[in-house]
Write a structure and sequence with these properties.
Helix content: 40-55%
Shape: elongated
Number of strands: 8
Largest sheet: 8 strands, parallel, barrel
Number of helices: 14
Length: 368
């Protein structure tokens, strides 16, 4: 499946010679002095392409700081005039869109909490009709690619062709090192079905802490994402929101110097020929893997029929435990990642259960 989006290339609506593209600024605009000082320091690094700031903040619980509100747009306008940096703001309602555009904001983004709600996205889309402004859409809070795609389509259908996505990670019940699980596979899927769509990574919200930002940012660039959105504050220790994940402008500049920018393609015959040979080898191995899985499922078919004819249940937990233990140990000896092996075995086992269930149901259908 390919998305049928009408898009303008990012380099036609965001002129910057800085690589990688960096959108940076405080999580929240708190005071005029805080925003102006941070903006000037970021501009001074020479590495920032766009200044971001949270004006309206969707908070989980009432009573928390929900953004400085419309007055912050005036500060942002002044920051733009003094630094020359284009500005970006999150919008969550039609009124936000109107106020941001009236204040001369250059780029709007739809937040994760908004993306999850089609009614909210449609309201934003309706308020954008007839407007020629870049819009970035963050992934929804929950790991649902279709919600992300649907939000992009709604904005695009409103006539916005200067469109991009922001990968900021997904909520998970499991406690890990990340505030929001990257789930890179979902971003890769979006890139696969919409190859012309720019995707910007937000390591600040994925990490939830400063320590992991470099690691995530580098991985995003290695996956050919078009840029980064990183939160930066004059003094993160006193930030009103998300203090742990913000960097000082100086620390952000140092981090950007440590990143390696690689090219998606290289015009070198020796390199391309060698790469073609290696890819051909992978294609051959992939064909063999698929063939072996098909052979395995043929054996599963026979097992299902044998269980059915002898009145045996589909699932035997002890057998599954044996498979996981033996195969995981073997895979580990072959230097395969344990997490990958577990997911692969679970996927194969799930298909085996489905196939055997189908066989059992065939008999029931005949008896009826």
């Amino acid at each position: 499946m390919k998305l049928n989006l009408k898009l303008q290339p990012m380099n036609t609506w965001l002129e910057t010679k800085k690589e990688p593209l960096l959108i940076a600024g405080p999580c929240s605009a708190e005071t005029e002095d805080q925003l102006m000082a941070t903006a000037h320091l970021l501009a001074k690094t020479g590495k920032v392409s766009v200044l971001r700031a949270g004006i309206w903040k969707p908070r989980t619980r009432p009573g928390e700081f929900e953004g400085i509100g419309s007055i912050g747009l005036t500060w942002l306008k002044r920051a733009k005039e003094e630094t020359g940096l284009p500005t970006a703001v999150e919008v969550a309602t039609g009124k936000h869109v109107e106020e941001a555009l009236a204040a001369g904001v250059d780029i709007l983004w739809v937040g994760a909490r908004s993306t999850v709600n089609p009614f909210t996205v449609q309201e934003i889309a309706d308020s954008l009709r007839g407007v020629d402004v870049p819009v970035l859409v963050k992934n929804p809070v929950n790991p649902d690619l279709q919600l992300w795609v649907g939000a992009l389509e709604r904005i695009n259908n409103a006539g916005i062709t200067k469109l991009g996505a922001i990968h900021r990670g997904f909520s998970s019940f499991e406690k890990t090192a990340f505030r929001n699980e990257p789930m890179w596979e979902l971003a890769i899927q979006l890139k696969t079905i919409a190859p012309e769509l720019p995707i910007i990574n937000d390591p600040s919200h994925i990490c939830g802490n400063r320590e992991l930002i470099q690691y995530v940012a580098q991985k995003a660039l290695d996956l050919d994402m078009q840029g980064l959105m990183i939160e930066s504050h004059l003094d993160p220790s006193v930030a009103w929101t998300d203090a742990k994940q913000q960097l000082t402008p100086a620390a952000l500049s140092e981090l950007m110097d440590l990143l390696t920018l690689r090219k998606p393609e290289i015009k070198d015959k020796e390199f391309t020929d060698k790469l073609a040979d290696l890819r051909a080898a992978i294609d051959k191995i992939d064909d063999q893997i698929i063939q072996k899985i098909a052979e395995r499922m043929q054996v599963v078919q026979k097992i299902g029929e044998y269980k059915r004819d002898n009145g045996v249940t589909i699932l035997q937990v002890n057998r599954w435990d044996q498979i996981m233990h033996k195969r995981s140990a073997f895979a580990s000896a072959l230097k395969l990642d344990q997490n990958f092996t577990g997911k692969l075995l679970e996927l194969i086992h799930s298909e085996s259960i489905r196939k055997q269930t189908e066989i059992m149901n065939e008999k029931l259908a005949l008896e009826e």
